[in-house]
Amino acid sequence: AEEKAELKDRIRRLLKEKEAVLVAHYYVDPDLQDLAEETGGCVSDSLEMARFGRDHPARTLVVAGVRFMGETAKILSPEKTILMPDLEATCSLDLGCPADEFAAFCDQHPDRTVVVYANTSAAVKARADWMVTSSIGLDIVRHLHEQGKKILWAPDRHLGSYIQKQTGADMLLWQGSCIVHDEFKGVELDLLKAQYPDAKVLVHPESPANVVAQADVVGSTTQLINAAVTLPATHFIVATDNGILHKMRAAAPGKHFIEAPTAGNSATCKSCAHCPWMAMNGLKNLAEVLESGANEVWVDPAIGVQAVRAIDRMLDFAA
Ligand code: 13P
Ligand code: SF4
Asked: Can you tell me which residues bind [4Fe-4S] cluster (predicted)?
């Protein structure tokens, strides 16, 4: 505990000294989320992280999250220095959608508008017409569908098929998935709901269809936290990375949050729904990168200028 307090003090001091700002995702270590908030940075979903990083005047951003979040920050602000506690922090969706294979897929379907999820590499975004996050993907695809566009969607198949069902859009789906959300189980969730008949079910749309189908609210991490605060219920079953519970409990004191069942967490594993890459962000490596300036995110500028168009389209739409 002593060491933790010292590390936190060191980080507070270094952020000031280096005039850096900390931008964190809700799935990272609670200490990092709290530090981001208390030092004038932000903790939020992917859309807000992008917007906050772009608009903040600091010359150095430290992104506590995964690689695509750091890259998005760099693409939006090439003049800023973007640091990450661990550059190896990736995402199964990003890994499952290599840029060359994706480009070949797009080439086969030139008649389709290419919409990619934020959880992709800069090179994949460079090939896209639109980038979307979970908070706004549904609205953007609905808008494109109303314009008569046919869509090529990548990489998350669960989010893609959820949006497809909701909008009726013609969507060709890449078959990627998130290793964390893919583990939520519909049958077990149904049993858990029977134990808590008054509980509201909050689901991230990277979850499988039979889990999404049981949701009271489907949304991004920020949208799920807002639902936890505003819905008049005492119990909530939460199907997303359990890193979110820290903020939910703080934002909705007195309410009870129960983790949705995964394949492994019934008896043996209490925290299966936790992203191993988000977990690579800690106090120690955060302090170290602030001190040394190592782990700078680099995006090929030629790719950056291509990729920024798809991100800007989303941010303009959201504005
Ligand atoms: P959001 O916070 O945008 O909902 O994203 C979830 C996610 O999987 C990030 O890794
Ligand atoms: Fe990727 Fe899933 Fe981890 Fe989010 S939780 S970074 S989607 S693997």
From this structure: 91, 178, 275
> Relative to the alpha carbon of 204, which ligand is closest?
1
Q: Apex CA 150: angle with CA 149 and CA 156, to 5°? A: 120
The amino acid occupying position 105 is: F
Of 226, 194, 207, whose CA–CA distance to 273 is shortest?
207
203-261 pLDDT tens trace = 999 999 999 999 999 999 999 999 999 999 999 999 999 999 999 999 999 999 999 99
307 occurs within a structural domain: no
Question: Hey, whose CA ends up nearest to atom 5 of ligand 2?
Answer: 275
CB atoms within 10 A of CB 157: 22
In a domain? residue 313 = no
Q: Which domain holds residue 9?
A: 2-89+278-298
CA-wise closest residue to 275 among 59, 76, 57, 46: 46
119 a known binding residue? yes
Complex ipTM: 0.97
Residue ranges around ligand 1 (CB below 6 Å): 45-46, 66, 119, 133-135, 206, 220-221
Q: How far is the CA of 219 from the centre of ligand 1 (A)?
A: 10
